[in-house]
Amino acid sequence: MTSDQTEVGILPSYLCDRWWTPALGQGEGADGDATDVLDASTGEVVTRVSTAGVDLAGAIAYARTTGQASLGALTFHQRALLLKEFALALTGRKEELYELSKRAGATVRDSLSDVDGGIGVLFTYSSKGRRELPNAQVYLDGPVEPLSKDGSFLGRHVYTRLPGVAVQINAFNFPMWGALEKFAPAFLAGVPTIVKPATPTAYVAEAWVRILVDTGRLPAGSLQLVSGAVPGLFDHLGLGDLVGFTGSAATAERLRTQAAPGVRFTRETDSINASVLGPDAVPGTPEFDAYVKQLMVELTTKAGQKCTAIRRAIVPEAAVEPLIEALRGKIAERVVVGDPRADGVTMGPVVSRAQRDEVLRAVGELQAAGGRLLLGTTDAPDVTRADGSIGPAPEGAFVAPILVGFDGDPAALPDAVHDVEAFGPVASLLAYRTVEEAADLVGRGGGSLVTSVATSDPAVATTLLARTAAYNGRLLFLDRDDARSSTGHGAPVPHLVHGGPGRAGGGEELGGIRAVLHHMQRTAVQGSPAMLTALTGVWHQGAASRSDTHPFRKSLAELAIGDQIASPTRPVTLDDIETFANFTGDLFYAHMDEAAAAANPFFPGRVAHGYLLVSWAAGLFVDPEPGPVLANYGLENLRFVTPVSPGDEIRVVLTAKQITPRETDEYGEVRWDAVILNQDDDIVATYDVLTLVAKTAEQAASAAASAVPSAPARVDA
Ligand code: NAP
User: How far, in Å, CA of 530 to CA of 384, rounded?
Assistant: First the structure.
């Protein structure tokens, strides 16, 4: 044991809502097997990691009972609001997280992706959860399917949360973003999380978990942290549990085989991502410049330790030499390798000396396969040390940015260039002759997280989309218009899918609400309209309705789904149609020209405008005096079904279908089912009317007097 080790304690875990560290001493629960975690630049011991004696079975049981119960008591919107509180708490303390991340080799710019990126995921899911999910506990997928002629038997798809625990095993390179991008969707779905960070950066994970715990707002059992190994973990997992793994393909394969058949196992693994320079993006074009800059950024951000980093730069033969020179210049101008605590340093070390050795071993493999070092060196570089001096730093895990070149027929390049992941500041440069050849090279990566293409030629982009999309989770097209605003090749965004086919793991994380649904089970539910109404909280055609007080006179506190207004009828005259046509300027022949309308395959002759019918319907169902209904913010799913001719009569039936109180406002959203019928009870039009309604009569009065409601959320039915 070194003198450092005697002073540095064991990193705590957070289990069953308590901080826990293994007991010191010998035997069962001893810390004698603790792993030292070293500062990436100086080699000092930062912390020690051990889970000797950890009660994993107890933690899993706690998540399944206490965690499930506390999250189950909340709606999607309530969970979403908590995510925002967590994001704000982390924002308030992010300087601490930046400082800590420097010990792992991350510059402040690197932390923008890990720390700020992680916080951004929480904010995004908070906002999406409230706008795209109902303020309820189940999520309805797709429309109602009528399964009987008389409407008494219906079916639809319903998502409910998984009943178990989401165990998230993370890679070392994103201790915060990598964990929060899984925690946020799991939490929103209502599934408790156990985070298992990678050992080399477990102390950064411990720090963000501690900040969340300090808020005092984590629902009991909703988040646990295991700082260290998880022996026997898979013995305790079963149907209803989920493992979200991020790391190397080799570890993923080993763990997948340990998971019982019912465990949902998703993996995000390594990926030999490509970046293609289009044939039109010759030197001197903005696309060429954007490509060079992007390649430099991807090589050096997080010292190249990004699953999404560019590993293969695929460029036209004629662009090879100009590209090498341009990249050399960019690196000389922009890249300063050193301790992230020193001023001016733009690229830190890789996470550990073991990782440095692994990167150099992989570069050796590329060289053995015929690769030539075009830029950089495998020798230890001179670096800027913490005190600002420049020189060797053998105790740090520094690697220079390296570009490895491969010559020869693109189709005959060695497998190593498409296979070997040097998880550091390393990329290979490959030349192509035709766009088809470039596409084939992309595909030889065996499935990637992302490919970027610098081109302003839509034909090149279309060919590459058609030939490479199936091999990628994400494609980024870079041109002069988006070069400045692009979020970048290497930056997954929470709105879009992250993950890729084949070698990349076949998983699909993020992608907005899709990621929440990964933590839920989709079930087809069949039953009567009344039963589906009771099960989903959404009124279904055919279920009971009530027509007492006009529903526009009811606040959210008084309104119930099924409250209905069935209007009297209104005759339709030619005069009305002409008035509407002249007033709006909509003189379309189907409303104005009898012969032309009759010649149309859909109309018997002149017909009423659909928008006239919808406007009349509003006039028929509305209750005009000020009251709880504050605003109409739109219609959805409008369909005109049967044409209406002069001489017909119409009426409307409006029924409260879904009620979504807002957690933070004095009003909520009400979705109304609207059906316009003719004198024969044929359906003329169907649609949903969306309104904002005050929660109580008093709030209705004060809202009417003062407030203008903010833009409404989209509700889902
Ligand atoms: P790794 O060595 O495969 O480890 C990944 C995680 O698995 C770590 O938390 C590790 O914990 C854990 N682990 C290892 N053996 C385990 C076992 N028997 N049971 C349970 N957990 C176990 O990967 P890494 O070195 O941390 O990360 C680098 C790799 O991740 C690269 O290949 C990179 O491409 C990939 N990556 C992929 C993505 C993506 O989204 N696709 C994102 C980031 C990184 P310990 O550290 O404690 O051993």
Answer: 71
Which of 47, 248, 355 should be mutated for ligand 1, with most atoms under 8 A from CB? 248
Specify the domain boundaries for CATH 3.40.309.10 within the chain: 274-488
What is the pTM (predicted TM-score) of this model? 0.91
CB 166 within 8 A of CB 187: no
Residue whose CA is closest, atom 42 of ligand 1?
307
Strand pairing report for 242-246 and 166-169: parallel
Fold of 274-488: Aldehyde Dehydrogenase; Chain A, domain 2 (3.40.309)
Site to probe by mutation for ligand 1, drawn from 110, 237, 251 as the one with most ligand atoms within 8 Å of Cβ, is: 251
Spatial CB neighbours of 43, under 8 Å, sequence gap ≥ 6: 353, 395, 396
Residue of 181, 206, 268, 669 with catalytic role: 268
Distance CA 349, CA 101 (A): 12
In the prediction, which pLDDT does 639 show?
97
d(CA 559, CA 657): 11
Q: How far is the CA of 248 from the centre of ligand 1 (A)?
A: 5
The pLDDT value given to residue 8: 80
Q: Which CATH number fits domain 77-268: 3.40.50.300, 2.40.260.10, 3.90.1150.10, 3.40.605.10?
A: 3.40.605.10
For the chain, list residues with pLDDT below 70.
1-7, 24-32, 703-717
Fold classification of 545-707 (topology level): Thiol Ester Dehydrase; Chain A (3.10.129)
